[in-house]
Predict the 3D structure of the following.
Amino acid sequence: MRLSLIAIGTACAALFLSWQPSLAVAEGPKVLSEKSVTGFPFPESVAYDAAQKVLYVGQFVSALKPTEKDGKGRISKVSIDGKVLEQNYLPAAGGEALNKPKGIWVAGDRLWVTDIDVVWVFDTKTKKGRKVALPDVKFANDPTVIGDVLYVSDNRGDALYRVDPANFLDGAEPKVTKAFTDASINPNGLYPGKNNSVLMAGFKSNTEARGIFVMTPGGKPKPMSRPIGRLDGLYLMADDSLLVTDWNSGTLFHWAGDGHVTTLASGFKGPADFTVIPGEKSMTVVVPDLVKSELRFVQISK
């Protein structure tokens, strides 16, 4: 059932009262510098490994065909200034091929990545990996780990998958279920929210706009914003505001929680699933442009 604009507005107002972002978010971050680095064929996702202080960049490599199983996809290990350290970091030599790796999530020495109809978990030290099929999935997109649960978005199937336990590399077969389906959300980017909730950015394959949603454990997804665009990457700031990428406007923007949206960087053709490198006084947002085959490093104030 599609939510009416009145229902969305009412739900957003109620949720805003419970979310309560800091009043300081109204001012928002400021852009300090930007640079682009080329040489990444069709990059869909970037993740930051805080322990090793490196980036992992998932790339389609062969063509902008996100559902083609051609075995040519890869994940590269990259320095935080954009230098390629290991071009074919994954898959490991002799390992099973990747096709079109999309969302990446890193926690400790584990790396999760979706690939069309499966989700992988890898050991970042040994490169050992294991995949799990997602039954009936139409377009596995972004993973995120909350507690010991792995969530995977399926934006074309308008569903959210739950994989339990998240770290299934060496254990028994994990349990795969759907947290929801057919909610007119089309979840794309995911990010851990407050109190073990899941934040979701909506993305419909045409120009129809979707918004930002939240789902608490055991609850139903609720809208946090009005429909904004075709949203991809998502990041929760310390003050509870959000950084988001939008394909419709070709931007990285800041969402203040009160409905206020501020563009931080523009001119993207395919602003996909980004990551954030934290710093003492600033942070660097690394946005893959899937269409331009480049990474853009956007330094912003905290």
